[in-house]
Amino acid sequence: MIDDDLRDHFAAESEEHLDTIETLLAAGVADRAAIDSLFRAFHSLKGMSGALGGAGMMAVAHRCEDILGLARQGRAAIAGEAADALVAAVDTMRRQRAGLVGENCDIPAPAALLARLGAVADGTAVAAPPPAAAP
């Protein structure tokens, strides 16, 4: 059983980190300070979710850290498919957070998302094609 104080702390802190990530991604990640802030937010989410038994959320955050680690080294840009994949990760992490906060339920990391994040991290990602034009 998870302590109520720990769960309350996780609820507040995780919401703040997810909001920070969304704000930074929406603004466009153009400098090292933004990359570092994103990395720290995902790192904090990974640790906090792990403390609550959220292996699924922890796995998603870890893959995001991999991408941001490359960006910190100057080997990747957080734009295009990388940014889109991180946004998809945040959407998933919000659902996982709700499971941990509401019912202490670990929602597994979707295999397709982990594969997408992994492809971005290893440089094999291909951007999704734009939607077909209306006839």
From TrEMBL:
One of its GO terms (biological process) is phosphorelay signal transduction system. GO terms for molecular function: protein kinase activity. It comes from the Bacteria. SMART domains: HPT. Keywords: Phosphoprotein, Two-component regulatory system. Pfam families: Hpt (PF01627). This is Chemotaxis protein CheW. It comes from Neoroseomonas oryzicola.
